[in-house]
Structures are given as C-alpha cells and as structure tokens.
Amino acid sequence: MQNGTMEELWSTSHLSGGNQTYLDEMYEAYLADPNSVPEQWRSVFDKLPNINDQVTTDTPHAPVRDHFLLLGKSKKVAADTLAPSLVSDHERKQVRVHQLATAYRFRGHQIAKLDPLGLFEREPVPDLDMQYHGLSKADEDTVFQCGNLYIGKSEAPLKEIVSAMEQTYCSSIGAEFTHIVNTAERRWIEQRMESVRSHPEYSPEARKHILERLTASEGLEKFLGSKYPGTKRFGLEGGETLIPLMDELIQRCGSYGTKEIVIGMAHRGRLNMLVNILGKNPAELFEEFEGKSFLSQGSGDVKYHQGFSSNVMTAGGEVHLALAFNPSHLEISAPVVVGSVRARQDRRKDHVRDQVVPVNIHGDAAFAGQGVVMETFQASQTRAYRTGGTIHVIINNQVGFTTSKREDARSTEYCTDIAKMVQAPIFHVNGDDPEAVVFVTQLAVDYRQQFKKDVVIDLVCYRRRGHNEADEPAMTQPMMYQAIRSRKSSVGMYADRLVEDGVLAGEDIKSMADEYRDLLDSGEHVVKSLVKEPNKSLFVDWSPYLNQPVVDHHDTSWPLKDLQELANAMNQVPEGFPLQRQVNKIIEDRKKMAKGALPVNWGMAEMLAYATLLKEGHPVRMTGQDSGRGTFVHRHAVLHNQKDGSTYTPLAHLYEDQPSFEVYDSFLSEEAVLAFEYGYSTTAPSGLVLWEAQFGDFANGAQVVIDQFITSGEHKWGRLCGLVMLLPHGYEGQGPEHSSARLERFLQLCAEQNIQVCVPTTPAQVYHMLRRQVRRNLRKPLVVMSPKSLLRHKDAVSSLEDLAKGSFQTVIDETDANIDKKKVDRVVLCSGKVYYDLLEKRRKEDANNVALVRIEQLYPFPEETLYEAISGYPNLKDVVWCQEEPMNQGAWYSSQHHMRKVLGRVNPDLHLSYAGREASAAPAAGYMSLHLEQLEKFLNEAILLAQ
C-alpha cells in the first residue's frame, strides 16, 4: 500500500482515542490468522516492519501502532527508516493532534450549541478533550502541521487548530457526515465548513435581506394572531428562520438553472410559506380565515392543508414553485412530492436531474416516527424512484404535540438518525442564528447539486405557542415554556445584532416591520421576487382534462392489420439474445397469436394495450414488486439474457423517438411506492401510470395513500389523477392472506364519481379498459381487481378481432348462443373469476334456464347498461348476486342498492338474493378442503336451488 493510500485509510478511519482498542484487536486477529481480517487491513499489516525480523504473537502493539500511524501521516521519511525506536515525541504528538482534529469532525456536533432554549442536556464527549489524546495546555503554543485540515495554513499552533475546529463543528452548526463512505463527499464537506470556520462573512446587503425575511415571517404571525385570535393556524413563531432558509434555498437552486421546485410540508408554517415564499395574496388567505371557499365544487380542505403554485425570479431565471397539498398524515406527502418531481424531470428529459428539485419539510417527531420516511429514503437511489436527491428540512420543535422526552419520542440521539441509512449528510443548526441557517442552506443545495443525493437540514427551534393556537403547552411542558416566555424572538435578537454591528439603525428595524404590515393591510403580494405574468411553459397543462363528463363507453378500437403489425414488432428479440426456455415458448406463442393461430391470452392483450398507447404518443410507466415479469409469470415486459444477465424491453424499442415505456421492479414497499406513483400521475396527465401490487391485499399497507389522496384528492383539492392500481384478486384456496384485494374497502370509498372500480374477466376487456383510461380526457383513478388464475384459464381468452373492434363493456350479457333468453327464468349477476366457476357449474348441471351476466365495472355503477341486459329476459323470475367473497366483504353490501334499483325498473316483483360465502372475519378459508366445500355450496345456491 502506498503512503498516499495509507494516509487516506487512516484519515477516513476514526482509529483514535478509545477506538485504538479496535486496532489492537484487529492486529491480534491478524497475528493469529491473517485471513480473518479484511483484505485491505491485511495488506496494511503485511507491510508493517517486523520486530527482530519476525512477527510473533507476543509482538508489542504500541510500537507497531505508532509506526502504522506515522507511516500514514509522514511523507518526509522513507518507510524503511521508520523504526519505532526513532519516533520523536513531537512526531507522536503530531499524530495525536490529527486524532483530536478527526474527533471534532466525528463528534463535534455533540457539544455544538444547537438548542436555542439551552434545555437539551448532552453527555460529555471525552474524545474532544486534549488530554484524552495525550496533549496538554503546555502544547497549545507548539506549532503542528495541519495539511490535512482546511484552515488556510500548512501549520499552526495547537490552540489555533483547536479554535478553528471548535468554531467549525461546535458552534451554531453541528455536522454529521463521517458516516458517509465516499471520501470525496466527506472531503468536500470538510473543505466547505473548515475553510470559513462555518461562519462565512455576509455583506451588509445580504444581512439586511435576512432580517427583512425574518421580519416578514414574524410579521405575518403577529398580524394573524391579532386579527384572528384563537384560530388554528399552526404558526411559525419560534421557527421564523424557516422563511430566510427557504428564500435562500430557492435563490440558490435558481442560480444552478433549476426550473421547478416541488415542496412538501406538514402544517406548521404552511400559511407563512404560502404568503412569504410562494406569494399567495394575503387578502385570499384572510378570506379563507373568514370562511370563504375557492373551490367551485367539492368539500375543500382546511387552510393548513392547502397547496399552491407560483413563479419567482432568481439570479438564474424564472423558477416555478409548487407546494403540495397535504393531509394530516404528515409524512405521507414526502413520497408524493418526489413522485411529482420524477414526472416533471421525465417530461423535461432531465436525466441529470438538476432542473427540478424536491424539498420536503418535516416535523421532528414525524420524521423520526413515521415509517414512510424510511421507505422514501430507501427509494431515493433506486432506478425507479431516484430524483437526484431531496433536500430535507426539519422544523425541529423538540416536542411532538405533548411528547418531548427523548426516551418517549424515539430511540435515537437525533430525530434525523434515520437519514444515515442512505448516508445523507445532516446539518443540525441553531434556529436562532439566521446566518448559520443561511450557510447550511447554501451547503445543502450545493451538496445536492454536486452529488445528486439526499441531504438534511435539522433546524433546531421551538414552538412559541402550543401544538396549535388553541392549545396550552405549559400543561405538559412547564419548564420548556418558562424558558420560551422569557426568550426574545430570533427576529429581535438578530435585529439587535445588526444594530450592534452598525449595519442598521433602530429606526430602520421599525420601518421594516411597519412596511410589511402596511402591505398586509392593503392585501398586496409581499414577495418581491414574485413573477406577476409567469412563464406558462413551466406549468403542467391540465386544461384538456378539466370538467370532463363521466362517459363509460369510449371507442378504443384499432385496425386489425395495424394491430397484427404491432403485435409482431413487440415480440421481436435481438439476434443472439438467448431466452429462458419457458419465456421463449411464451414469445413464440405470442407470435402465433399475432397471426391468429392461437387465441389471445391475458398477457398478450395487456402488452398490446401498452403498445397501441405508445404508438398513439402516450408514455407508459409501471412499477410493482415483480412488474417486469409479473408475479404470476404472465407479462414478460422485460426479457433477461440467459448468458450475461442483460435485459431487453421490447416495448421500449417499437419505433424511433417513441414515448417512454418504463417498467420497474420496485423495492418491497407499498405506502411510499404508491404515494410516489400518485404524485407522478398528478403531474403526468397524458401518460398511463400503473402500480401493481404483488398480491391485492398488499394494498393494505398503503391505505393512507388510498384514503387521503387517491379517493379524495379531487374532492378536497381539485387534484386530478389517472393512476391505475392493479390488485391481483381471486379465491383459489390459497388461504386468507392473498385471496382478497379488499374490494369492499374501495367500494365503500366510492362517491361523487371519484374513482373507477373494474373487474375485467377477458383479455379483450383488460385491453380496452387500459386504452380507455388514457384515450378519454377523463382522469380518474382506476382500481382493477386483477386476476391470478384467469391469466392462464382455458376459457379466459379473446380473439384479435375482439381487440381490434369495440370498447370496454361495463356489463357483459350472456355470451352462450345455446342459452335461449325466452327460457331463462334466473339471472345470476357476478363479477370476476367466479363467473368461470359458475359457467363450469352450469355446464355440468345442464342448467340452461340460468343466464350469467357479468358486471365488469362496479363503480361508477352501470345502471343503464345493466337495465338493458336484464330487460332482455322476458320470463325472468328471480335474480341472484353471486360472489366468492364472504357476505360482509366483496361487492354485496356496497352495490346491492344499485342492483335493486335496476330490478325495480325491470319488474317491481323481482327479488335480489345472495349466493356466496357466509360473513367471515377472515377474507378466506385457510384449508383447501374447506375452500372447495364453500365453493360448491354457493355455486349450488346460485345455479340450482330455487329462491
């Protein structure tokens, strides 16, 4: 190992102080068995000089360790001359100085002055004591080399080195970055912080601007507090520096040429952000406080859930800002934001990922406590979900509602420790030091743009009021609020600092506050950088999809000849690309289907739907845990070379300059992944965006996304979304866990035409359903009870002609030509796979008096189409609804009123009865024998028994 490599290894390993034990133990292991230590360390020990020309198990460690240290630090002495006996006392202390400096980088944050209230008690850090490293006050004036430090000198007295490191790492900023394994990233952070001692000098103009932004932040809260006392607003008092932070973040991103910034945040400070950063007209906010609604229809939402968008001017040009809508499930907005950012980057073909930047603003308790944060971090560097890094800002109140003790709020030292899992640098900063806040903001933006990774700013502040303005916080935090009540605001303290430094006079401070309040009184915009006539090309154009009528039937046909050509094209495999045997058989069968020699199965029809949409100019994106192949081995959108493991996606190579076709196998998450795809689909109106659950019941893990966004987002916020959820559903005797996609939950959420719930039973149906989703200008979420066993069922096939003509059928009437409608006295209504069970039972029993009618769309319920179908049976006596789910699940409770309404129109005497499993706490039976017994029982009830 060369000296340079040794120096890097030593400087990146905290083998100092208490950690020297680690070196000793590793060296002992090496002496006993060199193969027992990592290869890199073995190489190091191999090159150490032998004592008395041999290395034995009784070799003293101290000389070896000292030699090891010196070998890594000294380039002036050749390695073969560094016998341990020749090491001078000064050289030993030089090593100790480096150990001390390294300790500041590792642990300086633990004694930094981060808490404005001074209540956060910290344990002593022995590593940061000179004596721990064998140094004393007698050494303070001794000059040591500091070439490995970025303090602007090659050598300096010990006291100056210590002072520089204390200023850098132990003042208002505490940096955690030594968990990052990439040396370049760590060196970059060290250089940026140490070169200015974490205290860059700002010009008088810059400092005045910081104060102006702080004054605006405080001014809005005071104005709202006096005008609407006692009204919930989740104010920013105690965390006012968030506004100069965001102002600097936006301007800094703009200087890099960023075009869009998407922001997610929970409640606290949202109204302040809306007015002082995004430029919302204060008059509109005041009208909302007074009860005025700005939605022409829908329920609307409370003020502190509202989103907004605007354009502001920066030194690098115009930047579009989008603040995401957010429900009270706090952190759930984080993956929605990054999903929206990914869609915007894809639309711009921003593969470098610097034109659109995600910013997520968190609360400390939620950041540490909610699992979706971990899931979102886990997604950050994966192919399907990377966005080039998110800038995370934590408004650290040091309390979650009433929970403040660290042993109750989390199990980690900091709320930010979860971010270490992706090696994100973490900059803790005292919220009462505005200049330090601005500095770490610049650092965070630059890091994100340089390394395209997540970065965290922990803005340590406090709540001057309770959880909300109607709450009395002293009930549960008496000591904290004693300190808060006696503390001057950060605005006041910074103003005093500027007056003391001669930057401003006292009257200037007052006039700044008066000017802001006058703007509020007049109802004018208070953001000076706001663009009044924005560049609309920065917007996502939803205008073609607004106020569209809900029309079930839409022409989704495609000329047969063109369909065959496309089918052939999408099944071409590159020359010399060996496929796995079964996959090759599937591709060969699909070629036969294209010729009409075989009927079209589910996988072929689905892929043709995507191919035709791509041909029409619509991008397609699909994610899910097994989406490339398909959990049930039916899709094979991504082919795998059996020799070298490379992949080929035929639908991505249909023609030149085609829209993107992306299919990704996601990591094992539902909540963050579905939220990401929701965010993506709200920003990609022209494309088809699909999320596929591995099994339908996996959607349970994303129920918050379904409840708070997918089924209610349009009604609450006017946010359109065309996301498709494919949820494998069907009872095949595989037990309670993977049978049901919980159809009943979706149907319970259906109202006011909010979503679509479909249960297709043929390949042609899935083809037309997917095409309809994009070809209509209607954008509603589509929930599909997707099949499992039907993917290869002998009867679940279609012809190419079925795909080439027609459209999605919300109701499929009896299709057996041998069934005489005049002789039918019973109609069995059903949805999904149970149709094929009923069909087999009818054939077996020769029950030609029974007609089977499939309801393929359960919501919006197709009353007129069902009425037309049932009216075709003149001698009908009874109607049965048959489902394979238990009575308290499935469609029975949620849809029977629709069916009864239709039957009442056909014949008031018609009665609707139920055939299916009895009510059950579990979704399905766990034993195959019981499953089959239940199946036979309700099939008999549906087909044979008189009602």
Which features would summarize this protein structure in a list?
39% helix; 2-oxoglutarate dehydrogenase E1 component; 24 strands; alpha/beta; 2-oxogl_dehyd_N; 7-stranded mixed β-sheet; disordered N terminus; Rossmann fold; 947 residues
Task: State the major sheet.
Answer: 8 strands, mixed
**Roughly how many Å apart are the termini?**
87 Å
| Mean pLDDT level | 87
For CATH, the homologous superfamily of the largest domain is named as Thiamin diphosphate (ThDP)-binding fold, Pyr/PP domains
Count of DSSP helices? Answer: 32
Radius of gyration, taken over Cα atoms and rounded to an integer in Å? 34 Å
Strand content of the residues, in percent?
5-15%
Q: Structural class per helix/strand content? A: alpha/beta
User: In the CATH hierarchy, what is the architecture of the largest domain at level 2?
Assistant: 3-Layer(aba) Sandwich
Number of E strands = 24
Pfam families: 2-oxogl_dehyd_N, E1_dh, OxoGdeHyase_C, Transket_pyr
Catalytic activity: N(6)-[(R)-lipoyl]-L-lysyl-[protein] + 2-oxoglutarate + H(+) = N(6)-[(R)-S(8)-succinyldihydrolipoyl]-L-lysyl-[protein] + CO2
EC number: 1.2.4.2
Family: Belongs to the alpha-ketoglutarate dehydrogenase family.
